[in-house]
Design brief:
Blueprint (H helix, E strand, L loop, with lengths): L7 E7 L1 H16 L6 E7 L3 H12 L6 E8 L12 E4 L9 E9 L3 H12 L4 E10 L11 E6 L4 E2 L15 E7 L3
Parallel strand pairs: 2-3, 2-5, 5-6, 6-7
Antiparallel strand pairs: 1-9, 3-4, 8-9
Helix pairs in contact: 1-2
Bound molecules: inosinic acid (IMP) and magnesium ion (MG).
Inosinic acid binds next to β5, α3 and β8.
Length: 184
């Protein structure tokens, strides 16, 4: 349509069904840990859906974790990392002595996850484990190996299932690669 900004094509990578099945498996793996007092900490905003679905799946494993969120900023509105991580919204619940699992949507440079892990450790959590839905196959700026991984992801920009491109596409039920522009 005249005046429309060309919409990027989104190439499906992981379907809603694949994601749901994998989240169930992750919940089963987490439930096998010696956990005492589990807290899931989702990293806003991209991990809202993942963290909520994970908590729901954990309920199926007879676990009733507390859910809280942490918002960190390192990207701004573009697809390049600025290299600096800042706390936009801190965790609100006490973590001392508890078993924390960070639920993050995607591990890319490693800066966000390593910052989040150090932060939760500094708050006195008994254990801090990391669970990422997507592990992007790129060279990390900071070396960090996640404890749990949903899917290995090609080194492309992805959206959907909570993940955005400049605030859009979070609503997509599947995860897709932002491919070439569709039209002139
Ligand atoms: P890192 O600090 O470079 O590892 O970046 C991790 C964060 O950047 C993720 O939690 C996402 O919020 C965001 N991010 C990295 N790659 C993508 C992507 O392909 N799509 C959407 N968000 C991304
Ligand atoms: Mg994120």
């Amino acid at each position: 349509m005249a005046g429309d900004i060309a919409a990027p094509a989104i190439k499906p990578l992981f379907s809603a069904e694949q994601i749901a099945a994998r989240v169930d498996e992750l919940a089963r793996d987490l439930a096998a840990l010696p956990l005492d007092d589990l807290v899931i900490v989702g990293v806003l905003k991209g991990s809202v859906r993942f963290a909520e679905d994970l908590v729901r799946a954990l309920r199926g494993q007879e676990l009733r974790p507390e859910l809280d969120f942490l918002q960190l900023a390192s990207y701004g509105d573009d697809t390049r990392s600025s290299g600096k991580v800042e706390i936009v919204h801190d965790v609100e619940i006490p973590l001392a002595g508890r078993d924390a699992v960070i639920a993050d949507d995607i591990l890319d440079s490693g800066r966000t996850l390593s910052f989040a892990k150090a932060l939760l450790e500094s708050r006195g959590a008994r254990t801090v484990r990391t669970c990422v839905l997507l592990d992007k196959q790129v060279k990390r700026a900071i070396e960090i190996t996640p404890d749990f991984v949903g899917f290995l992801c090609p080194p492309v920009y992805v959206v959907g299932y909570g993940m955005d491109l400049a605030g859009r596409y979070r609503d997509l039920p599947f995860i897709g690669e932002v491919a070439t522009q569709l039209s002139e």
